[in-house]
């Protein structure tokens, strides 16, 4: 029946070859300010799930700026790279989340049917009226790289007390980021495999780096070990989720929150990388092979809709 | 690990839905938008260009409009008028130009024709001058030739006149001489007659006296001693008679008989028959005096026989030796040098002296048997040989002075004159007449068969040729024409060397046949006169006529020679 000879490499390769069709449409008020006879056509791009929006923001801006050629010097229009922001269903998109994560989080909750009907993902490009309150302005490439490295170091700190990432040279760090940008699987996993090794004579990571995202709430991150020493068993995804939700409810109670989180896993759909892995999958394996390139497991919990 | 499988399957499904379905479409869509944007750019550029062009156009129109100003119509009219005038002018100018070009064409044609005419005239002129030059040259050369010829003509004319004078003189001299000769001859004949008569009378007287003497002596002897003195007298008388005869002979040996003394008679019977030599006889010849006969044959010797005319006896006088092979022909010289020439099959001719019987010369040089040899003069001998050449020998130098190449065996030859012109008869049926000055034949006469012998008369006008077709031909030498042919049913020419002779006065021709008969023809009417047969028993090889015409000598193959006479 099931072929147990599926290599972990096949899964990581499939993960790496993920693409999302995204359609960028100019906002209406910006469309009206176009000073050419033709209105700009929507921009379609196939973007990698584990990439970040700031990586292609230059492209988006270049495409739309051609339609404002004459008015670039006009300050009143504020057509500016700094003023560019992306929106989906009137939700401004945060730029420091991976694209796949944003897609899973926002589209999965919108309808009960399969997420495929939302493709291509239609994002509205705004060139003006930047929402100062909700969004930090899109940074340049170097800032995104710094954010990525920070996340990576945090993950390694959780896994190996930061030993491995500290031992790696700057060249390797650069190689990780560049292979991510240039979509080079082999180059990336050459370095990444070191980050998946074990230290301190452990057969597992010390703590699993993960974040759990629920709509309209900040993400949850807890300390969780993948192996139960006392019961001598590997912990599963279910265990992680249960532990996290319970811990969160406890925190809410301590903080005297009025409304509590629903901590029944049955009410949620668990989506990582756009798929729903079986809840009994060992978490250690998931952390090693199913993480995002920043070595974090970004898990989306989508509430099942009341029918 | 079915959770792994589930995860993998889900991932594949996700990829399929998210990526595979849209990848191609997005790619093509992006390409289209790119093309679209480039086209837009081009379009805008072209619109801009169009705008600028329109702008320029409107500017130009504005300019043109503004230039006209207010009185536009008048200007237009004047412009139109000017325009019409200009057109008319142009038309007329064009017409004029057309006419001019026509004139130009016709004029150029005329010029071309004139040029061609001029060129052809020049060519003709050149040709004519060349002809003129050549004609002048020819004329000059012709004039030169003419002058030269005139000179030559003059000289020839002068020579001719001189010769004519000489000739007339010589003619006159000759007439005189003839007259004197005639006179002298008459005198001589009268004197000789007188002398003969005197001699006869003297002889008669002498005889009479002798007889009277004898009678007297007889009567005396009768009276004294009859027998002893008689025989003495007989011997002495015979001795004296022979002495007288010898004296006559010696005297006659130095004299050739005169022409008028010839009295050719046809022999009727054999007078003397004798055997000469041991073998076949090939040649027989009379000494010009008529008293000696020479025979030669395959015994390699030449026998000289003395003819005693009065008692018709032939005695061998001497034998000439020296030949190494059969003697084929004998000749005596006619100029009183007393030489005898014999040619033989040992390729040489030999000359002996008759007085001392000594071999004077041996003439070698022929490459084959010498068939014939004749004295041309006393110092010039001609010989013909089987080696197809004729040679002329000079006895003073003892050398061959000329060799004539005849191309065919020469069977017989005769000397035509003293300068060395010869007539020779050949195996190839031709008689060749040789010129004395060069080595070529003056003339050739073709007969029906091989020529075996030639005989010429004393005046050198008639030639008798004997040929193998059993005929004799008489040829007249002025026109080289055969005038008579002699034949007889029994006359057969048996070999290549049968000799036929003319009589000394050319009245008769004689030849011997192969059955032993001797035939005599009359040359004037061509009929046979006499056939002398029954005496020879084999082929008659050669015949010779006595110079005085009284005897014929013939020799046959079987050593027998016969003297025929009255």
TrEMBL record, chain A:
Record-annotated Autophagy protein ATG5 UblA domain positions:
15-126
GO cellular component annotations, sorted alphabetically?
Atg12-Atg5-Atg16 complex; autophagosome; mitochondria-associated endoplasmic reticulum membrane contact site; phagophore; phagophore assembly site membrane
InterPro entries, from UniProt? Atg5, ATG5_HBR, Atg5_HR, ATG5_UblA, Atg5_UblA_dom_sf, ATG5_UblB
> Under the GO molecular function aspect, what terms does this record hold?
Atg8-family ligase activity
Q: How does it sit in the membrane?
A: Peripheral membrane protein
Q: Which domain of life is it from?
A: Eukaryota
Q: Name one GO biological process term.
A: piecemeal microautophagy of the nucleus
Cell compartments where the protein resides: Cytoplasm; Preautophagosomal structure membrane
Please tell me where this protein is predominantly located: cytoplasm
Q: Which UniProt keywords apply?
A: Autophagy, Cytoplasm, Isopeptide bond, Membrane, Ubl conjugation
| Autophagy protein ATG5 UblB domain location | 207-301
Q: Which residues form a coiled coil?
A: none
Residue ranges annotated for the Autophagy protein ATG5 alpha-helical bundle region domain, each copy included: 142-197
Q: Which family does it belong to?
A: Belongs to the ATG5 family.
What's the stated role of this polypeptide?
Answer: Involved in autophagic vesicle formation.
Assembly and interaction partners: Conjugated with ATG12.
Quote the protein name from its UniProt record: Autophagy protein 5
Source species: Rotaria sordida
Automatic annotation (TrEMBL), chain B:
A GO MF label:
protein-membrane adaptor activity
Residue ranges that the Swiss-Prot or TrEMBL entry lists as coiled coil = 43-96, 125-209
| GO BP term (any one) | autophagosome assembly
Q: Does the keyword Coiled coil apply?
A: yes
Repeat listed as a keyword: yes
Question: What GO terms fall under cellular component here?
Answer: Atg12-Atg5-Atg16 complex; autophagosome membrane; phagophore assembly site membrane
Q: Where is the Autophagy-related protein domain?
A: 7-178
Any Pfam family from its record, for instance, is WD40
Q: What superkingdom does the record give?
A: Eukaryota
Q: Which region is the signal sequence?
A: none
Task: Identify the InterPro entries for this entry.
Answer: ATG16, Autophagy-rel_prot_16_dom, WD40/YVTN_repeat-like_dom_sf, WD40_PAC1, WD40_repeat_CS, WD40_repeat_dom_sf, WD40_rpt
Keywords carried by this UniProt record: Coiled coil, Repeat, WD repeat
State the WD repeat positions: 279-315, 320-362, 363-403, 533-566
- What PANTHER family would the database entry show? AUTOPHAGY PROTEIN 16-LIKE, AUTOPHAGY-RELATED 16, ISOFORM F
Name the protein family: Belongs to the WD repeat ATG16 family.
Full protein name: Autophagy-related protein 16 domain-containing protein
């Amino acid at each position: 029946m099931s072929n147990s000879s599926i290599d972990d490499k096949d899964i990581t390769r499939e993960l790496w070859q993920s693409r999302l069709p995204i359609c960028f449409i100019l906002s209406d008020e910006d469309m009206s300010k176009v000073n050419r006879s033709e209105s700009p056509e929507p921009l379609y791009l196939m973007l990698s799930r584990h990439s970040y929006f700031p990586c292609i923001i230059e492209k988006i801006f270049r495409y739309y700026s051609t339609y404002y050629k004459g008015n670039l010097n006009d300050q009143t229009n504020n057509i500016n790279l700094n003023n560019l922001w992306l929106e989906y269903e009137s939700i401004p998109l945060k730029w420091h989340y991976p694209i796949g994560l944003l897609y899973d989080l926002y589209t999965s909750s919108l309808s009960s049917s399969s997420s495929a009907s939302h493709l291509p993902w239609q994002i509205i490009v705004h060139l003006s009226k930047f929402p100062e309150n909700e969004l930090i302005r899109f940074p340049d490439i170097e800032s995104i790289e710094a954010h990525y490295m920070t996340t990576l170091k945090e993950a390694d700190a959780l896994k190996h007390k930061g030993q491995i990432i500290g031992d790696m040279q700057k060249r390797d760090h650069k190689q990780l980021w560049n292979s991510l940008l240039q979509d080079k699987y082999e180059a990336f996993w050459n370095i990444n495999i070191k980050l998946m090794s074990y230290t301190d004579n452990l057969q597992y990571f010390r703590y699993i780096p993960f974040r759990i995202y629920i709509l309209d709430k900040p993400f949850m991150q807890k300390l969780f070990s993948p192996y139960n020493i006392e019961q001598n068993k590997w912990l599963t995804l279910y265990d992680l989720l249960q532990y996290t939700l319970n811990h969160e409810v406890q925190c809410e109670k301590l903080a005297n929150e009025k409304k509590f989180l629903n901590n029944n896993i049955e009410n949620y759909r668990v989506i990582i990388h756009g798929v729903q892995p079986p809840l009994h999958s060992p978490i250690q394996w998931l952390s090693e092979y199913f993480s995002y390139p920043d070595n974090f497991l970004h898990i989306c919990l989508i509430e099942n809709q009341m029918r | 690990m079915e959770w792994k499988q589930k995860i993998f399957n889900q991932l594949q499904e996700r990829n399929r839905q998210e990526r595979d379905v849209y990848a191609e479409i997005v790619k093509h869509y992006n390409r289209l938008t790119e093309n679209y944007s480039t086209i837009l750019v081009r379009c805008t550029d072209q619109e801009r260009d169009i705008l600028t062009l329109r702008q320029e156009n409107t500017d130009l129109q504005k300019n043109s409009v503004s230039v006209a100003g207010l009185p536009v119509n008048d200007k237009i009219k004047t412009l139109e008028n000017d325009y019409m005038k200009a057109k008319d002018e142009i038309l007329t100018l064009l017409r004029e130009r057309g006419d001019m070009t026509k004139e130009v064409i016709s004029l150029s044609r005329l010029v071309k024709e004139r040029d061609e005419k001029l060129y052809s005239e020049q060519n003709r002129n050149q040709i004519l001058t060349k002809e003129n030059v050549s004609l002048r040259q020819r004329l000059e050369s012709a004039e030169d030739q003419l002058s030269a010829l005139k000179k030559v003509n003059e000289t020839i004319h002068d020579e001719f006149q001189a010769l004519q004078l000489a000739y007339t003189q010589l003619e006159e001299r000759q007439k005189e001489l003839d007259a004197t000769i005639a006179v002298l001859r008459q005198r001589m004949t009268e004197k000789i007659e007188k002398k003969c008569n005197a001699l006869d009378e003297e002889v008669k007287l002498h005889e009479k006296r002798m007889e009277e003497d004898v009678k007297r002596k007889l009567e005396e002897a009768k009276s004294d001693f009859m027998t002893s003195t008689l025989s003495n007298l007989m011997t002495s008388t015979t001795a004296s008679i022979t002495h007288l005869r010898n004296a006559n002979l010696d005297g006659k040996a130095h004299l050739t008989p005169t022409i008028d003394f010839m009295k050719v008679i046809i022999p009727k019977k054999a007078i003397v028959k004798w055997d000469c030599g041991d073998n076949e006889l090939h040649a027989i010849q009379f000494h010009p005096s008529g008293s000696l006969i020479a025979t030669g044959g395959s015994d390699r010797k030449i026998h000289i026989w003395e003819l005693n005319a009065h008692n018709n006896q032939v005695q061998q006088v001497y034998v000439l030796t020296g030949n190494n092979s059969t003697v084929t022909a004998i000749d005596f010289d006619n100029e009183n040098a007393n030489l005898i020439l014999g040619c033989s099959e040992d390729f040489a001719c030999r000359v002996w002296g008759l007085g001392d019987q000594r071999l004077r010369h041996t003439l070698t040089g022929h490459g084959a048997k010498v068939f014939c040899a004749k004295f041309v003069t006393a110092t010039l001998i001609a010989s013909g040989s089987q080696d197809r050449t004729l040679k002329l020998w000079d006895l003073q130098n003892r050398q061959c002075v000329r060799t004539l190449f005849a191309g065919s065996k020469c069977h017989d030859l005769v000397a035509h004159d003293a300068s060395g012109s010869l007539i020779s008869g050949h195996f190839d049926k031709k008689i060749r007449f040789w010129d004395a000055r060069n080595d070529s034949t003056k003339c050739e006469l073709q007969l029906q068969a091989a020529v075996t012998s030639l005989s010429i008369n004393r005046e050198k006008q008639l030639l008798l040729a004997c040929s193998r077709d059993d005929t004799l031909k008489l040829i007249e030498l002025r026109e080289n024409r055969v005038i008579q042919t002699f034949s007889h049913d029994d006359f057969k020419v048996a070999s290549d060397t049968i000799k036929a002779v003319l009589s000394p006065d050319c009245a008769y021709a004689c030849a011997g046949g192969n059955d032993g008969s001797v035939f005599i023809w009359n040359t004037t009417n061509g009929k046979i006169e006499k056939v002398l047969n029954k005496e020879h028993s084999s082929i008659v090889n050669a015949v010779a006529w006595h110079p005085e015409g009284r005897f014929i000598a013939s020799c046959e193959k079987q050593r027998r020679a016969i003297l025929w006479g009255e």
